[in-house]
């Protein structure tokens, strides 16, 4: 059974602080890793994708991947109240026929940024 | 920016009835997916579709479910005989290339009474 685990939170940080979100996955052959943001009642929205070990930065967001430890994280710098949402970690085994899109999601970490 | 469109936004149906959820993927995309999210639970993969056939399906996607791309624009999910436990948000997604991240539609909330 392929699993993606996240701390459900809520994670509460003050405005302007760094929010750190973590995710572990069970299947060593996982190839692609994604962070999605989901506001209540809305669809997942892609924040970051990462495919190789190390850090990837995009604006206030940094994704970190460690395949040896089967660990993915997302750092949000200068957190804003508008960042308050549930953050979903997703992994895929990759492969043919679009199976890159056969995502396995974690349950998500609820982030609350207090003004 | 082009987007994935889903209709209806909310569907209420009685147990045992058939429902069809509709999606219009982004026009030049080739890979199509259905996911569902039961309230308070994980987003779960149902099925992927490429080149007019199912590429992969999950254990959830049993004989009660089917997908179709009846024309060049629509992608539908049919549930033949709905059960109470089918109540969920159903998301359609598409991508243009195998390596591309998914674009999700806004979802259809299905309520089975």
Distance between the termini of chain B: 37 Å
Shape descriptor of chain B reads: globular
Report the uncertain regions of chain A: none
Percentage of β-strand residues of chain A: over 45%
Low-confidence stretches of chain B: none
- Strand-and-helix sequence of chain B, N→C? EEEEEEEEEEE
Class per helix and strand makeup of chain B: mainly beta
Radius of gyration of chain B: 13 Å
- Count the beta strands of chain A: 11
In percent, how helical is the residue content of chain B?
Answer: under 10%
Written account of the structure:
The complex is a heterodimer of chains A (115) and B (113). Chain A is mostly beta strands. Helix content of chain A is 0%, strand content 52%. Chain A contains no helices and eleven strands. Chain A has strands spanning 4-6, 11-14, 19-25, 32-38, 45-50, 54-58, 61-66, 71-76, 85-92, 104-105, 109-114. In chain A, the strands form two sheets. In chain A, strands 2, 4, 5, 9, 10 and 11 form a six-stranded mixed β-sheet that branches. A five-stranded antiparallel β-sheet of chain A has the order 1-3-8-7-6, with no helix packed on it. Chain B is 0% helix and 50% strand. In chain B, strands 2, 4, 5, 6, 9, 10 and 11 form a seven-stranded mixed β-sheet that branches. Chain B has a four-stranded antiparallel β-sheet with strand order 1-3-8-7, with no helix packed on it. Chain B is globular and about 40 Å long. The termini of chain B are far apart. Chains A and B meet through strand 4, strand 5 and strand 10 of A and strand 4, strand 5, strand 9 and strand 10 of B.
